[in-house]
Amino acid sequence: MNFLFVNPKYTTRGEPYEFSLGMAYVSSYLKKGGFNVFCLNTCHCDDTIEEQLFRYINDKHIDVVCTGGMSLYYAHINAILEASKRVKPDIITVVGGPIVTSDPKLVLENMAIDYGIIGEGEETMADLADALCNNKDVRNIDGIAYIRNGELFITDSRSPISDLDALPIPDYEGFGYGYLVNLSAPTSHQIYYTILDEVRPAKIISSRSCPFNCTFCYHPLGKKYRQRSLDNVFEEIDYLVNKYDINLLILMDELFSIDRERMYEFAGRIKKYNIKWIPQLRVSDVDENIINILKDSGAYMISYGIENLSMKILNSMNKKITKYQIEHALELTRKGKVAIQGNILFGDPEETEETINESINWWLNHPEYGLNLCMIVTLPDAPIYRYAIENGLIKNKLQYMKDGFPIINLTKLTGIKFKELCDNVARYPQNEKYITVGKIIHSEKVYQDNNKKSAYSIIIECPECLTQSKYNNMKQESFNKYLLIICRDCHRRLYVRTKDCFPLNYTIINIIIYNAIRMARVIVCNNTAIRSIYNKIGYKCNSLLRSYLFR
């Protein structure tokens, strides 16, 4: 049998997107097992999903289509399933990732899924592939869900993979990772990439899962924390550096600092590569020595799980950290001239006007840290999602997923007060009274890339250290009011006016077209019939329009 792994069409060709490490892991595991595996990255082509699937399914004689991802991408995943069944009605469809693991009953009963993979996908998918190829009974496979004669079957849970070193590195080549790396520009991932003019990024995972139980979070890989050996991790880093010339590494581990000796060893080994990198740390683990060691090894930014500045809300979220630990970690990081990434989340069930004011006032008084303000998104199967179901705040799970998980009021606020909170969270970071704004000294259009997108050279002065830094290869990705960057000297987060960065793109016609595209996306997301039309012609039109806007 021939298996096709399909990466959902998250964006149009020529635009950056998040590379799916999970699917790439499963693909490489099946290839290692000797199965006939093909990969299709729909983000790399202007053709519709159905056109791309028609070619692959017929040319490669595909028997099984595999896809998956987060519940947020329901529409993208569903488009693959429906198109696959239209192209070949008897094709077998397999879906994995959080969308299935969080609620297998919901998705299998409402999507064209023949088999769902629950939890980690490598071993389960290999067992399922073996059963399909050799006509074996699937009932003996742990970690799958399927429907037979209208009845849903969910097999026993599969134990977490204990030896992560036994897994091959993700199938970067199969999904055309080099194309994505070549697309990358300082502005293609907002603040993260602006440290370099010619950025070639990669994200890796050196451990899996998290034993903590934050109420807004969901861990599809279970709660058993497991690590890869550093020798194994650096084999992957060597591959990425040698094949794709990677110069920026984002470590996706949620608990990187839980094993201090391992963290120090990683820092010592990564230093030899002379590349930039970003770890994620718990604020409770940070001290001055850690900051200095990580910075010396090339870590220019640290991502923290902050989430709130009210102890009442931190306790409600089950964060197991304190306000003092947050402030201590942030001050040490800023003192060490390391950039900070962190969010303040609003909308917890225990949220009151008092707790909101506590976090908002703290944020207003600390612009030096540049933390993001966000509303909590209630995703399956996080504890707050179950809370919303139990309290009747989500009445139709399928419709809620189809609608893209809109923000809902879990708090103790009235509807009017909650709307005011949402408005403030969106409004405050757009007000120059509360943010650190970099000064544009000079902006010059330099060249146009292969995707007909203009690149600018921009000199920006940091109001904190007064350093003027030159940022090359800057490309406009949107008409948002501000572009987020990092000062290349003190590493402070700066807001710069997009209009001042890319002045030649700000014509009346361009702005009208861009706003029309944004309105069209809203209509598409909320109308199934229009979405089907968009899937046929929208991606091509969108690609052409964006090429025109940012030329």
Radius of gyration from CA coordinates: 24 Å
Reported by name, the CATH topology of one domain is Rossmann fold
Q: What coarse outline follows from CA principal-axis ratios?
A: globular
Q: What's the helical proportion of residues?
A: 25-40%
Structural class: alpha/beta
Q: What is the first-to-last residue Cα distance?
A: 45 Å
Strand order of the largest sheet: 2-1-3-4-5-6-7
Oligomerization category of the chains in this entry: single chain
CATH C-level category of one domain? Alpha Beta
SS element count, helices: 19
Beta-strand level of the residues, as a percent range?
Answer: 15-25%
Could you please describe the fold and organization of this structure?
The chain has 551 residues and is α/β, with parallel strands linked by helices. Among the domains are: 2-154, Rossmann fold (3-Layer(aba) Sandwich); 439-505, no CATH class; 508-549. It contains 19 helices and 22 strands. A 7-stranded mixed beta sheet has the order 2-1-3-4-5-6-7, sandwiched between helices. Strands 8-11-12 form a 3-stranded parallel beta sheet, with helices on one face. A 3-stranded parallel beta sheet has the order 13-14-15, with helices on one face. α1 crosses α6 (122-134), α2 (49-59) packs across α3 and α18 (508-525) runs antiparallel to α19. The longest helix is centred in the last third of the chain and has 22 residues, at 528-549. 40% of the residues are buried. The model has no long low-confidence stretch (mean pLDDT 92).
